[in-house]
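Allow me, if you will, to draw on your knowledge of protein folds for a short while. Thank you for your consideration; the sequence and its tokens are set out here:
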Amino acid sequence: MTIVSLPGSSGYLDVSNRKVVSYFSNPYVLGLTFVAGIGGLLFGYDTGVISGALLYIKDEFPEVNQSSFLQETIVSMALVGAMIGAAAGGWINDSYGRKRATLSADVVFILGSLVMAAALDPYILILGRLLVGLGVGVASVTAPVYIAEASPSEIRGGLVSTNVLMITGGQFLSYLVNLAFTEIPGTWRWMLGVAGVPAAIQFALMLFLPESPRWLYMKKDKAEAVAVLAKIYDPYRLEEEIDQLATALEEERLRKQAVSYLDVFRKKEIRLAFFAGAGLQTFQQFAGINTVMYYSPTIVQMAGFKSNQLALLLSLIVALTNAMGTIVGIYLIDHFGRKKLALTSLSGVIVSLIFLAVAFILESSTSNSINVGGYGWIAVIGLALYIAFFAPGMGPVPWTVNSEIYPESYRGMCGGMSATVNWISNLIVAQSFLSLAEAVGTGATFLILAGIAVMAFVFVVVFVPETKGLSFEEMERIWKEKAWGSGSGKDALLEARS
């Protein structure tokens, strides 16, 4: 008989009968993960396809070609929709379940794709972009939570990271679609309209999949929840999971109050969890992923390659590298741990951003008569290092941690709020980077991003706990101990006052 102690508990557990759980050990769980992950595919495709489509939109609508404001609005309106969708997505998840949230997101996304494909003027196109953004925002909240709640804790990180793989895969797919439709009449309409196809596929498949077993147990039907859990866990683990859910449900009943957004900030343990989760989402964007991706064509031109086709090819290579790095992250996140992976990732990000900054500073200080190709190659190395370090760590870790660290009654709400923070940060970076680069120089801007990455490193060290292998109940105990101290009794007092 093998005995291990439970983290955060004085009890012990016989694990001699427990099967070894691996990423591929349960095809049913893997199927749930990939169907839910189609939401991530939509997320990645929508953010990537517009860069190619906009070239042809400008050709068809002269007013767009003549107005930078219209171009920015067409691009950013999806981000605005995503912020709204993410904010509403938390409430939809908690009130109606993860499955219905996914289905509603698919319907909105399909509608938005059709509106964009049929748009007769830029303003209808902007409406379509808003609609697909709403769908993406809801999906960005729902997919990680659904996957996390249907995953054994031993492989939860890898399975949730699969959603990030689908995001990066969607970006790669968008570049392929951009290439495929370049010579077809109505180019941009096909580019934007075809996004409705995976949404329709997900809708059809999701009809045959179950609701999240944790949501079912806590909110609706215990028998149905147990039936779903029986397909995920072996009999020994099934009993353990049901016991943990029963305990969590009893704690929810003792609270005897509806959860509100103000509670996230009033209750110290929830506030600490949200601060860690939202901070990770903020630093993911402010560490510069979108700006580095944006500058990839410029970096190639600095290296001496002026061809637009080569720049497009680089975009494909960068997107493929991003996806491959995410695959590495899927393996490492459950073996190496979330916190260690984030810190290693940020260390590489800092070094690569310094490479990029040095390359741009040297290039700007060099006379036009001097060949600056060598500096360009420094920048290319910086770009390659950045993607190689960012993709396995700071790509999946924020989404994984946010799917794990909140108690059941707050998971949808806090997940939605945290995803909204991510989209707001994304919009701020997208709207401010070029202005900042014009004001202080591109090299100095990358140095600022490196400084932010250093701040992110310190933030992870101080505020983010390791969640590898922990159950949701064990994670909740960690936040109570951080808030009130181990054995202080203040957590019990807080519950009594609630």
User: Anything to note?
Assistant: The first strand starts at residue 3 and ends at 5. Residues 24-209 form a domain with the Growth Hormone; Chain: A; fold (CATH 1.20.1250.20). The chain has 23 helices and two strands. The chain has a mean pLDDT of 82.
